[in-house]
Amino acid sequence: AETCRERRSTPEGDPCGETYECAPGTYCKIGSGSSGTCAPAQGEGSPCVNHRACLDDSFCAFGAEVGAPGVCTAKRPPGEACDDARVCEQGSCVANECSIECKARW
């Protein structure tokens, strides 16, 4: 029988299917097939295959070579160019520029 776990509670080294299952500071590193293992997220300068493989303060920057691994890179501050909100410190990319995300007050 399967055991239900809280979101983001699977410890490093345990099996996973998606990154949201893994504990903070880890991601689901998919091996051969569709199953993976919760592995430590990587810091700046480390090779990566997707954004989830990098720590929360960085993103996976890919070069021009198709299929080559990327490099975990520091997220960009407001005012820097972007094409995806995941590359921005504040998590907001508006008109191809990292911006400060405003939260509505109710």
Briefly characterize the structure:
The protein is mainly β and 106 residues long. It has strands at 15-16, 26-30, 36-40, 47-48, 58-61, 70-74, 93-94, 97-98.
Q: How does this structure look, described?
A:
By secondary structure, this protein is mostly beta strands. The chain has no helices and eight strands. The chain has strands at residues 15-16, 26-30, 36-40, 47-48, 58-61, 70-74, 93-94, 97-98. The model has no long low-confidence stretch (mean pLDDT 86).
As a whole number of angstroms, the C-alpha radius of gyration is 16 Å
Strands of the biggest beta sheet: in what spatial order? 1-3-2
Largest sheet composition: 3 strands, antiparallel
Low-confidence stretches: none
Question: How is the topology of this model organized?
Answer:
Blueprint (H helix, E strand, L loop, with lengths): L14 E2 L9 E5 L5 E5 L6 E2 L9 E4 L8 E5 L18 E2 L2 E2 L8
Antiparallel strand pairs: 1-3, 2-3, 4-6, 5-6, 7-8
Notable traits:
106 residues; mainly beta; three-stranded antiparallel sheet
